[in-house]
Design goal:
Blueprint (H helix, E strand, L loop, with lengths): L7 E6 L17 E2 L2 E2 H10 L4 E8 L18 E5 L5 H11 L9 E4 L9 H10 L6 E7 L4 E4 L5 E5 L5 E10 H10 L6 H7 L5 E4 L10 H12 L13
Helix pairs in contact: 2-4, 4-5
Bound molecules: cytidine-5'-triphosphate (CTP) and magnesium ion (MG).
């Protein structure tokens, strides 16, 4: 029997409406440093040599994608107009749409379109550290704040020990067939790792950094712009994004 080295594919869910942002356009298309917000993460993913293709899951009636010129990102980028009502539905629809192109054991890196500050080293570290992992995993950061659980009157009912708590980010990287089966078996999950956990497996946490924020509220746009402008200053890890 022929055996293949697993390849890496990126899948970027971008079919949300950005309700919390409250803008006229879905947040993935809001201008950020002169480009649509989603352009920044796509540019990072398209710049990683080990990623074969970068698939973007858009809503079925997305009219905005075609208004922009994506050719600068190269031929590996491919839009899929198959998003669903929730993020998990969009990811699953994307996985189904690429089934002819991807083998069961290939890795899929799922990354939120709403995380524009993804850096190349984030992606490369994830790929490197999970290369021989049986399950896969996700970028995450250890929690710095002390956590409080509230009662119904917004009074502190308990302090939650933060010792082993992490904030989940994306990309989240799992084998194609494992991820597809996991998402087909559970409902209501907000990330891929939760689906894998529900299947009884333990995804690995790979430490990224706090710069990989998810743009959710209007203030996050200011933060994202600041992070992209100052990229490479101080951490010595990343060149500025052109
Ligand atoms: N997403 C998606 N399909 C959906 C919902 C979300 O592909 N039906 C994508 C978003 O486009 C985003 C990512 O999943 O890139 C993370 O979701 P979130 O930050 O919640 O984005 P929105 O759902 O667009 O925002 P909101 O929840 O404020 O409406
Ligand atoms: Mg949402």
């Amino acid at each position: 029997m022929q055996s293949f080295d697993p390849r890496h594919f990126a899948l970027v869910p971008a079919a949300g409406s950005g309700a919390r942002m409250g803008a006229a356009l879905p947040k993935q298309y809001l201008p950020l440093l002169g480009r649509p917000l989603i352009h920044h993460a796509l540019a990072t993913l398209c710049a990683v040599p080990g990623i074969e293709r970068v698939f973007v899951v858009l809503s079925v009636d997305d009219a905005e994608w075609a208004r922009h010129d994506w050719r600068v990102l190269g031929p590996r980028l491919e839009p899929l107009f198959c998003g669903g009502p929730t993020r998990a539905d969009s990811v699953l629809a994307g996985l189904r749409a690429i089934s002819a192109e991807v083998r069961a054991t290939d890795w899929v890196l799922v990354h939120d379109a709403a995380r524009p500050c993804l850096a190349r080293w984030h992606v490369e570290k994830l790929m490197r550290e999970l290369a021989h992992d049986d399950v896969g995993g996700l970028l995450a950061t250890p929690l710095a704040d002390t956590l409080k659980r509230a009662d119904e009157h917004a009074r502190v009912a308990a302090t939650v020990a933060r010792d082993s708590l992490w904030r989940a980010q994306t990309p989240q990287m799992f084998r194609y067939v494992m991820l597809r089966r996991a998402l087909e078996s559970v409902h209501g999950v907000t990330d891929e790792a939760s689906a894998i956990e529900a299947a009884g497996l333990r995804p690995r946490l790979i430490e990224g950094d706090a710069a990989n924020i998810k743009v959710t509220w209007p203030f996050d746009m200011c933060l994202a712009e600041w992070i992209l402008r100052h990229r490479g200053e101080g951490d010595g890890k990343e060149e500025k994004i052109p």
